Amino acid sequence: MKILFLLQVFPYPPVNGISSKVFNLIRYLASKGWRCDLLCFGTPAEAARAAELEAAAPGVRVLAVVPPAAGAGRAARKLLCLLKGLPPSIGEFESREFKAALLAAGGGGYDAVH
To answer: Any alpha helices (H) in the chain, and if so which ranges?
Structure first.
């Protein structure tokens, strides 16, 4: 089985509740022979740790670690979502780079997306 994980944070090392939950889930599924691909937001330093995550959880593949929005653009997107009646957090995770990586992964024949 192949699962694509779309994550708001890079899950390695597991240092808080969000990253611990996701890391343990993907490590468990990968240990059962499932392939787990990750597309997530994270800093360049976290992106540099992608190989460490893949080594710590064989069967896990990091497709991309996209830098989160920052500065005035982030605030403007959050405000725009609020004016549209949407949760402001949606604007925080709006990213052309993430969308492009997701479209590229779309042909991966995934059984599930989490």
So the answer is: 17-31, 44-47, 50-56, 71-83, 88-92, 96-105
Q: What is the pLDDT of residue 95?
A: 85
d(CA 4, CA 64): 12
In this structure, what are the phi and psi dihedrals at residue 49, rounded to the nearest 5 degrees? -95, 10
- Which tokens sit at 113? 């997306």
* pTM listed for this prediction: 0.86
Q: Residue 36 belongs to what H/E stretch?
A: strand 35-41
Among 17-26, 51-60, 74-83, name the one with the lowest average pLDDT: 74-83
Residues 6+ apart with CB under 8 A from 99: none
In whole numbers, what is the pLDDT of the chain averaged over residues?
Answer: 91
Cα–Cα dist 113/91, whole Å: 21
Structure tokens at 45: 């330093």
